[in-house]
Amino acid sequence: MRWLALTLAGPMIWAAAFTLVYGMHGVLCAGVAGPEGLSLTARLVLIASWALGLAAFVPLFMALREGDALTDRLPRYGTWIGLVATIYTLFPTAIATSC
Amino acid sequence: MSDTTYAATEEGSATAVDIARNPAQRALPLHRELSRVWANDKGLWGQITAVSHTTLGLRFMATAFVFFAIGGILSMLIRAQLATHDGAFLDTEIYNQIFTMHGSIMMFLFAIPMLEGLAIWLLPKLLGTRDMAFPRLTSLGYWCYLFGGLIMLTALLFGVAPRDGWFMYTPLSSAAHSPGINADVWLLGVTFVEISAIAAAVEITVTILRQRAPGMKLTQMPLFAWYMLGTSAMMLVGFPPLIAGSILLELERAFDWPFFDIARGGDPLLWQHLFWLFGHPEVYIIFLPAAGAMSMIIPVMCRTKILGYGAIVAAVLGLVFLSFGLWVHHMFTVGIPHMALAFFSAASVLVAVPTAVQVFAWIGTMWKGQPQLHLPMYHILGFFLTFVMGGLTGVMLAIVPFNWQAHDTAFVTAHLHYVLIGGFVFPMMAAVTYWMPLITGRSRIKGLGETAFWVIVIGFHGTFFIMHLTGLLGMPRRIDVYPDNPEWIWLNLTSSVFSFVLTIGFAMFALDLLLQITLGKREKRDPWAAPTLDWAMPMPSPNYNYASLPTLRHLDRPARDVIMPLARGEGALPGAPRGRRELLVTRAIGAEPDHVAILPGNTALPLVLAASICAFVLLMLASLYLVAAFALIPVAAFIWLWGRGMSPVGDLSPVEIAPGTILPVHHRAKQSLGQSGLVALLVADGTLFGSLIFGLAFLSVVTQGPAAGIAGAENFATLVGIGIIAALLVIAAWAARGMTRMAAMIGVAVNLAAILVLIWLKWTQMDDPTGHARDALRAVVAGYVALHIIVATGLAAFVANQHARGEIDQVTRGAHPAWRAWQGFTAATALLAMVILLAQAFA
Question: Which residues of A touch B318 (CB under 8 A)?
């Protein structure tokens, strides 16, 4: 079961990071009406939330095993899928979004 | 068997996967012995009582094909209407019903059941087992599908079919704007059919994880199984939001609970979120099995092995997750926050990457192999041509500014047909033509199939490629008449002409199959010289698939090399010497042999249960809600009988599956198929609960409607009531840990007490659910908890009854694990719901 958990962990972190950033965006934009941009502090909080999601991949990469067998490679694939998805989909969300 | 052997298994020691060879027997007596046990009963009664995956899988596919034909005829009516700008062929009311039913039939009555049917028929053969994990559930799923589909078709015949589009947007589908039962037919009919989808998802998951041939590790199983594992996981998580949405909308229509009414704190966007939380993953739920079939067929057609097995598995993993992060791209024009546009646009583009990985792997496989242009390969080439174009227009629609321009135009209609016909229908035609020899035992009559393919390709692209242009020129979808615009008229007429060509092609395809079934010559075994187990059996395949089950030594070998050893009983669990349906259950990751499951035989119980659920649905449609509540009594009674059929009675002694390998039967196994199935069901159930909580959060945080009134939770009596229910459910969960009759009796009493307190709270303390959407959702969450406590009471009573009958002891645990798991889940969700409701009240 550890193998299965490691394989699924990357995409799960992506889902969790999305929830965190989306939630923070809602909190930071509460009470802000109109299309104006976020304050600098709010932007930094949003970026920090994204960075927290990215940081969660560090222990995950450390837990991965080396080896060429498919059982070793699949958790690596899963982790990379999660990392790329977290970088790519949350980049515009954290950096360029407004309320 | 000795007690020592049994105890060793109970403690979880893995049995070696390298099982000894059974002595060879004469094949014919083995076949007769198995046929006596596994065959369907004779005649019409035999069809009604059949639970075999072979019979039911084919029946699912045949029924789906009939619905495909009906949906196709409806599309002809649509195109006839649109052939001219002022078509008088259909009036607006009938046109609306027809396009709604066309979409609904194709999605819910053709595509999903077709993939379920293929999986049910094929998976046991590919994995080296004799049936799906829960044969009666397969049968129940089929009858629910058939009855639900017939309800929708009957409504069409009587002119009361759904008419609000296949995604049933509110407020168009709300009672004020859609009076009559039309929308109810959709909500109740589709939900009824979805019982079939959830049932299939549960058993597909369990079959793949627990019934692979000994030694067939997850990382070695055929790619189709990987795809179906991803699909079933998506179905378990994807369908509950739609079920939740359908329940809410039906409650609004029937009882005026205002979930989607802005004036009373509701929001139509909640429906869109719940629908597309299902609706977008649905596209991949349909695509993945088709891609799985192609991953099986392409290497065989190209005389090579698949390129990039690991990359394809990773792509499946990526698609399963990423497809749940796209749903809002269907809602780009509704005025959602900029942040959501950014995220969902990026995710919609990103999902093209794992899709492309698969396409390149298939192309690479063809490149390194020696492609042979048999009929299945024609349809695979049709897939490449069509699906890749549909995928590219999907990337175009993922870009927000373009989406704003093309939204709700014929361009989107063209895109979705390229994706669905390219990504599902062509691969399914490839799959059917590939596996037809195994289905019928007959070979094809050459010529007609190839002609049908070309007519379909020409008809399809003639119809839908042009529709891109129609959409880009601004023509909206779902209109029955349009302005006398010269740019639109010739395009529409051309689409209509080619759509009839397309229909002729599908008719020729059907005729080709019919000719093969009736006039085809007897086909030799393993006609494609395939490397997979599905061809290592007699043709047509018998209900039991294998006279003996494949083991490690039979894997990774050409089918022709293992046909005879398996037919002679040299594999595991040969024949049916105990006169019952047995199969081997293995462990989830490594496929070590675990125990022997005894499956139920032919029975009409699934039909009777489905008919009783159908009666409930029809009474709801007739607005006889009180009578409908009473109709649940026979449903509960038949479920009880269902459970009795699984009771541990008869010979429970262990079984020697091969020399030196003795395994317990499932009644005495540590982790039975039933327990695995319950875990899968609870995943879906938990998602349903999560969908309701999402709705509550959405209405509380996002919706701009009037504020909710005082929730009533802050008064002392309510707090005491909630506290008592929490305490009672914790006690019930604790009681479920005991393996005694007294514990089960306590469970019954405590659950009953919790229900009584909940009823008291509902009638004396909770606000009127028709007043405000949040009050309505609170009432639904309370109803969810109440329903789970009622089921927990029934399970506890069932366990108490098994104790009274002497069917349960410390080793034979009967329904006790199911009660324990359900009771724990009920307590957890109820406590979570209470915390959320209280937090909301005091916020």
Answer: 11, 81, 85
* CB-based contacts of B611-615 (< 8 A; 24+ apart in sequence): B611/B143, B611/B147, B612/B638, B613/B144, B613/B147, B613/B192, B613/B195, B614/B144, B614/B147, B614/B148, B614/B151, B614/B192
Q: What is the 3-state secondary structure (H, E, C) of B791-837?
A: HHHHHHHHHHHHHHCCCCCCCCCCCHHHHHHHHHHHHHHHHHHHHHH
How far is CA B445 from each of CA B49, B372, B394, B457, B510, rounded to the nearest angstrom?
34, 18, 38, 21, 13
pLDDT tens track for A12-69: 999 999 889 888 887 787 666 555 667 888 889 989 999 999 999 999 999 998 888 8
pLDDT in tens, B537-582: 999 999 999 999 999 989 988 888 999 999 999 999 999 999 999 9
Q: 0.90 exceeded by the pTM?
A: yes
Q: How far off is chain B from A99, nearest CA to CA, in Å?
A: 7
Non-local CB neighbours of A30 within 8 Å, separated by 6+ positions: none
ipTM exceeds 0.90: no
Angle between helix B223-255 and B112-127 (nearest 10): 150
Closest partner CB to A89 (pick from B314, B350, B588): B350
What is the model's pLDDT at position B371?
A: 95
pLDDT per position as a tens digit, B189-237 = 999 999 999 999 999 999 999 999 999 999 999 999 999 999 999 999 9
Confidence of residue A99 (pLDDT cuts 50, 70, 90): confident
Neighbour-count burial of A80, counting CB atoms closer than 10 A to its CB (0-12 exposed, 13-18 middle, 19+ buried)? middle
For range B728-733, the mean pLDDT:
96
Report the pLDDT averaged over residues B145-153: 97
B697 to chain A, any CB pair closer than 8 A? The answer is no
Residues 68-87 of A with CB under 8 A from B: 69-71, 73-74, 77-78, 81-82, 84-85
Percent of chain B with pLDDT over 70: 97
Residues B752-788 as b/e (b if ≥16 CB within 10 A, e otherwise) read bbbbebbeebeeebbbebbebbbbbbbbbbbbbbbeb
The confidence band for B16, taking pLDDT boundaries of 50, 70 and 90, is low
State how far Cα A68 lies from the chain centre.
Answer: 27
Backbone φ/ψ region at B165: left (φ over 0), alpha (ψ -120 to 50), beta: left
Give the whole-angstrom CA distance, residue B95 versus residue A46.
49
H/E stretch holding B656 reads: strand B655-658
In three-state secondary structure terms, B140 is helix
Residue A90 zone, left/alpha/beta (φ > 0; ψ -120 to 50; rest): alpha
Q: Which two tokens mark A24?
A: 């923070």
Q: CA-to-CA distance for B574 and B23, rounded, in angstroms?
A: 10
Site of tokens 């006279």 = B547
Nearest Cα neighbor of B331 from B167, B121, B473 is B167
B346 part of contact set with chain A, CB < 8 Å? yes
Written as six digits, the tokens of B294 are 């192609």
Length of chain B: 843
Cβ atoms within 10 Å, residue B655: 19
Helices (H), B702-771: 716-735, 741-764
- The whole-angstrom distance between B335's CA and the closest CA on chain A is 12
Task: Determine whether the interchain pair B325/A93 forms a contact, defined as Cβ–Cβ distance below 8 Å.
Answer: no
Does the structure show a pLDDT above 60 at B285? Answer: yes
The structure tokens listed for B628 are 């409908």
Contact B132, B123 (CB under 8 A): yes
